[in-house]
Design brief:
The chain is α/β, with parallel strands linked by helices. Helices cover 31% and strands 23% of the residues. Strand 3, helix 4 (72-80) and strand 4 (88-90) form a beta-alpha-beta unit. The structure holds pyridoxal-5'-phosphate (PLP).
Length: 402
Amino acid sequence: MEQQHLLNLVEEHGSPLYVYDANVIEAQYKRMANAFSSVDNLRINYAVKANTNLAILKVLKSLGSGVDAVSIQEVQLCLKAGFTTEQIFYTPSGISFEEVEKAVDLGVQITLDNLSILERFGNTYPDIPVCLRINPHVMAGGNHKISVGHIDSKFGISIYQIKNIKEVIAKTGTIINGIHMHTGSDIYNIDAFVQATEILLDVVKEFEHIEFVDFGSGFKVPYKEGDNETNIERMGEQISERFNQFCVEYGKDLTLIFEPGKFLVSASGNLLTQVNVVKPTPNIVFVGVDSGLNHLIRPMMYDAYHHITNVTNSNDSEQKVYSVVGYICENDTFGHNRKMNKVSEGDILRIHNAGAYSFSMSSNYNSRYRTAEVMTYKGKDYLIRERETFEDLLKNQVEITL
Ligand SMILES: *Cc1c(COP(=O)(O)O)cnc(C)c1O
């Protein structure tokens, strides 16, 4: 996005501000669809937890995307955004049977990741086919906080428990219509994915009524210049070929599903924030901005790198080194020792790649308001969320008299 455009949006809507370029989402969606174009039945189910704004959901719906929802509330948001029940795949982990019942009432495709729930489900709803989340026990993902497919992960039913699954479904008569895995986030190495694919396809062979195979997601996106990313085109070629061959072996045209979150929305997002103070100390020049881990927790939670640029000063002949920190009473740091165009108080900084797990993980910590959000798409700007007000902080508090 153009610098001036970003500055105008902050002028109009205030700082801090999330701005999404939905043209980027569209390009990423098409890139993924193209990479797997040789598969007849492909579904891309956007993992909505990455960014649940209804406007973003509507853009993805218009592109033909389905959705992956991990809570009943996400299912409700997707229905609100206009997705049909056939387009909603519900893939929760460790939830109560009561929540599963609600998903049944809403009529969405359910994935279960627990043997005891599978048994209860089969006894209660013998006629509803269900998908199983399998844990393939491969180590994949950017770091251990976001690896969810390894042997000690809470997710999925272990591939070593296929026998137990079969015992349960023999008892209940449940039809397994899909097999699912999701091994983590930030997976750069295609080989780990291909290895997990083979394991998953072996599981598919164990069941007769499979209609779809869901490979989850976890594609890595570049966070800085020169950063690597999952080679989606090469992966598309490899997995498509293997999948098509497998459909022949299985004797049925299965549907191939992916559930990208980050890949679709990360690069579209920016957090724009104004510089409150420039604070030189003996070792470090701090830049303190009017935002913090309450608005973007990824650097603190995952040690995630987010590129930061100075939107106000485009003169790159006067670069300096800064540490960009938040206004929360914690060591909230957006970036250490970053080379940026000279920063002055009042400048607007742009924190890049803030479209995924950014606003959706934000909070009111330190009693700060969550930001407004703006989306730009096909030459038009839309305010898609108002900034919070003091009323929002009080909303559910119950005042008592002592
Ligand atoms: C979070 C999640 C995804 C998306 O992961 P990304 O790394 O954002 O692509 C997909 N599937 C499931 C089940 C998830 O929980």
